[in-house]
Amino acid sequence: QVQLAESGGGLVQPGGSLRLSCAASGFTFSSYVMKWYRQAPGKERELVAQIRPITGSTYYVDSVKGRFTISRDNAKNAVALQMNNLKPEDTAVYYCSAQGFWGQGTQVTVSS
Question: Averaged over 42-59, what is the pLDDT?
Fold first, then answer.
């Protein structure tokens, strides 16, 4: 079955960096768009970034452009989200998603 496992969240000060990772299994990873979503308390889940399987073309929500970078390693069935210059408003649970499936999420807290 499809499994997505996120890791790498934590507490970081404003301006800091974190790298989230997602290990995928149970499907042909190299054939599917991989996405990172986030959900802050009291807010709807939003798409943060996605990366296409063949071209590697990417999409970012405006609020993270220039700060976040999504990447994938098809040989390792993994997708990552490098987050730099983090802001308090980036605080949320971050989820890896593919084909409508979701991981359990990893908490990112940006606070001084």
Answer: 96
Q: Residue range 31-43: average pLDDT?
A: 96
Strand order in the sheet with 3-7: 3-7, 18-25, 78-83, 68-73
Contact 53, 33 (CB under 8 A): yes
∠ CA 46-20-4, nearest 5°, is 75
The token pair at 22 is 């997602």
Q: What does the pLDDT look like over 67-103, one tens digit per residue?
A: 999 999 999 999 999 999 999 999 999 999 998 999 9
Alpha-carbon distance values, 25 to 13, 62, 76 (Å): 32, 30, 10
Q: Which residues contact 15 (CB under 8 A, 6 or more apart)?
A: 85, 86
